[in-house]
Design brief:
Elements lengths: L1 H8 L3 E5 L12 H10 L4 E4 L7 H11 L4 E3 L1 E3 L9 H9 L4 E3 L6 H7 L18 H13 L2 E3 L5 H13 L4 E5 L10 H10 L2 E5 L13 H11 L4 E4 L10 H14 L4 H15 L3
Parallel strand pairs: 1-2, 2-3, 4-5, 5-6, 6-7, 7-8, 8-9
Helix pairs in contact: 1-10, 2-3, 4-6
Length: about 280
């Protein structure tokens, strides 16, 4: 099986890693993450930060690593980035962003679950359940650049409302951020409906990890992949936390777990390589 993991990771793209610099301690720098991924034979990584844009630093890391290896970045619309900041999105896209995420740490959903003050959040809905007007401009920018809209840490109900609107504005690449997480717990019926609409799902190893409190058994992850079809899923780690394995080692373990639980080699090829490459515009 180890040989199969080595084969599968060749050309893979992990679209969800966290590196330093960051306000939270990380296990490695963006540069070290990229070097490790390149050494493993991967095609690329996407570096995400909850508090700062990453497209520019991704560009510098890619230059430092060299070769054909790709490093991608983007922007999370949290309070630290100015919230639903249209100008920030426009600038980040010009810098090469491949994904713009709706609020994560600043989402009302996460604050409510964590019992924090929602007054400091970045709500995506205004009064009377209407979307904040800036979002329409942001969706238009994402659509025009043909990059990914990530749903962040919004609630399942919010995601179900927003995705059709974003698609109506021309967004072709919608990626549901870890629908299996304790913050979202998206029902399978809702996942099936979003898959029917054309959304993709970012299936993260984090929820099976130490930091994720091993909340999700492998069987549950496989069931979600099978329910929607591997054709609309990517598998990533969401790693970078000091308590977890280095992301590349985490990805290897994740592949092994999925193989052990019946996910086929061809399905993993699609989720590790084909779908991420499409979303990253390769």
């Amino acid at each position: 099986m180890a040989d199969e993991v080595t084969t599968l990771i060749q050309g893979a793209i992990d679209c969800h890693m966290h590196g330093s610099p960051d306000v939270t301690e990380r296990i490695a720098s963006d540069l070290d993450l990229a070097r490790a991924a390149k050494d493993a034979g991967m095609q690329g990584i996407l570096v995400k930060s909850h508090v700062s844009p990453t497209a520019a630093r991704a560009h510098l890391v890619q230059e430092a690593v060299g070769g054909d290896f790709r490093v991608f970045g983007g922007l999370v619309l949290n309070a630290q980035a100015g919230g639903l900041n249209v100008a920030a999105v426009e600038a980040e896209i010009k810098l090469g962003a491949r994904q713009i995420w709706l609020p994560t740490l600043s989402s009302v959903n996460q604050a409510q679950i964590s019992k924090r003050d929602v007054s400091k959040c970045v709500p995506v809905f205004a009064e009377a359940g209407k979307l904040q007007p800036q979002l329409f401009e942001i969706f238009d920018l994402i659509a025009g650049a043909d990059i990914v809209l990530g749903t962040g840490h919004l609630s399942a109900a919010e995601i179900a409302q927003i995705v059709p609107i974003a698609m109506q504005r021309g967004v072709k690449k919608v990626l549901i951020t870890h629908p299996e997480s304790r913050l979202i717990k998206m029902p399978l019926d809702m996942q099936k409906e979003l898959a029917r609409q054309g959304a993709f799902f970012d299936r993260c190893f984090f929820q099976m990890s130490v930091t994720g409190a091993a909340a999700l058994p492998p069987e549950a992850m496989v069931a979600q992949i099978e329910a929607t079809g591997h054709e609309c899923s990517i598998i990533s780690t969401d790693f970078g936390q000091v308590a977890n394995d280095p992301p590349v080692e985490g990805l290897k373990k994740y592949i092994q777990v999925l193989l052990d639980h019946g996910v086929s080699h061809p399905a993993l090829e699609v989720m590790l390589k084909k779908n991420p490459a499409f979303l990253m515009g390769l």
